[in-house]
Amino acid sequence: MMGDYNFAAIARSRIRSGRKAVAAETKEFASIVVKSIDVPRRRVTAIASTSDLDRDKERILPSAFAERIDSFKSNPVILAAHQHRLDDGSPPVIGSVLPESISIGTDSVTFTMEFGRSDLAEQYWVLYRDKHMRAFSVGFIPLEWTDERDEKLGMIRTYTKIELLEISAVAVPSNRAALSRSKARKEEFVSLKQLESEMLASGEISDEKSLAFAEALMGYDENRTF
C-alpha cells in the first residue's frame, strides 16, 4: 500500500457505519453496436441507441452520461468482456476510446475506439474487423433512475444519471447471469469510487493518494469476483 493510505479499509468502514453507496449495483447495459470500421487505423465507431430498451427492459438516457463523463475520459479503456484481470494476470485492455470522439446527442451516444497491439487486442480486432463481433457493453454505477409500469412489458427502468466505469467488447451483451458479481465486493468497490470522487471534488487528492486508490481498486480483481 502506498504510504499509509488504506482506502479499501476506509470504504469498508463507511459501509459498516451505514454510509451506503448511492447504488451498490454495478451492471452491464448494452444496446451498443458498430456503426463503422476504419481498417487502416484499426478503429471502430459505435453508437448506443439509448432510447431502445435492452433485454432487461432498461435504457440509459444520453444525458445520463454527461455529468460524470470526464472521469471516464481520464482513463477511457476498452476491456475484454468486463474482465479486470486475465487468468494469467495480464491486463484485459484491448484498446481505448478516443476521448474527443465521445459525442452525447439527443437520442444516442457515439464513440470511436482504437485497438491496441497486444495478442489479445489482435484477436478482438480481427473479430470486429471481419464483423463476427458487433456489440459493446458498458459497466457503470447507477446514480439516478425512474421506474414505470408498461401494460405489455411490465416494469421499465430508465437511468437518468450514471457514472461510466468502462466499456467492454462483448459477444452477447446485457447478460446478467454470465456477468454476476459479488454484492459485498460491489458495495466496497462503489464506496471506494465514491470516496475517490469526493476527494477529487474537494481537491484533497495528491499523486501519491491517486496511486494508492489505483492499488486499492486492483484488489477487487484478485479473485475475479468483481
Description:
α5 runs antiparallel to α6. The protein has 226 residues and is an alpha+beta fold. It is 27% helix and 32% strand. β8 and β9 form a beta hairpin. The C terminus is likely disordered. It is built from 6 helices and 9 strands; from the N terminus they run αβββααββββαββαα.
Quick rundown:
The chain is of the alpha+beta class and 226 residues long. 27% of the residues lie in helices and 32% in strands.
Identify the notable features of this structure and list them briefly.
single chain, 226 residues, alpha+beta, seven-stranded mixed barrel, 6 helices, 32% strand, disordered C terminus
Number of domains: 2
Adjacency order of strands in the biggest sheet: 1-2-7-5-4-9-8
Q: Tell me the span between the first and last alpha carbons.
A: 20 Å
Low-pLDDT stretches: 20-26, 175-183, 220-226
Query: What's the Cα radius of gyration?
Result: 18 Å
Rounded mean pLDDT is: 77
Identify the overall geometry: globular
Helix content: 25-40%
The main sheet comes to: 7 strands, mixed, barrel
H and E order: HEEEHHEEEEHEEHH
Structural class given helices, strands, pairing?
A: alpha+beta
Q: Give the DSSP E fraction (strand runs of 2 or more residues).
A: 25-35%
The number of helical elements comes to: 6
Question: Total number of β-strand segments?
Answer: 9
List the SSEs and their pairings.
Layout (H helix, E strand, L loop, with lengths): L6 H10 L10 E12 L4 E6 L9 E3 L2 H4 L2 H5 L3 E4 L12 E5 L5 E2 L4 E7 L3 H11 L5 E16 L3 E17 L12 H20 L4 H12 L8
Helix pairs in contact: 1-5, 5-6
